[in-house]
Design brief:
single chain; 130 residues; alpha+beta; GTP Cyclohydrolase I, domain 2; two-stranded antiparallel ribbon; 2 helices; 38% strand
């Protein structure tokens, strides 16, 4: 196998660090395990962020997300853990993670978490998506 799951995230220098701009990433194949039953949980993750000095390298994000496949995790915890790891590693000006979990037992779960650098203000001409 050419690659393995990894919790190691890689980044590259933001080519336009002086400018606020938004990067949106959709990850439609997130999986983890239900901590109660061990059955797989599936979700689409939508990541939106305004980078600071660093941008997320996409291949490392892919193998990082893959690393949750065999871990038991409550939806709320895994969503918050992913956001915390990304914020710690790349210190964005703003980051929002929306995890839309597939139906289980007739219930859909969506968890939305965000982070805003205390020194960053949304520019007046920017409208953040709900």
């Amino acid at each position: 196998m050419p690659s393995q799951p990894s919790k190691e995230l890689e980044f590259f220098d933001n080519p336009m660090a002086e400018r606020d701009y938004t990067i949106r990433i959709e990850i439609p194949e997130f999986t983890c395990l239900c901590p109660k039953t061990g059955q797989p949980d599936f979700a689409t993750l939508n990541l939106e962020y305004v980078p600071g000095e660093k941008c997320i390298e996409l291949k490392s994000l892919k193998v990082y997300i893959w690393s949750f496949r065999n871990e038991g995790a409550f939806h709320e915890k895994v969503t918050n853990d992913i956001l915390s790891d990304l914020v710690t590693a790349c210190t964005p000006r703003y980051m929002k993670l929306t995890a839309e979990f597939n139906v289980r037992g007739g219930i859909y779960t969506t968890v939305v978490v965000d982070h805003r650098d205390e020194n960053w203000q949304i520019p007046e001409d920017i409208v953040m998506l709900p």
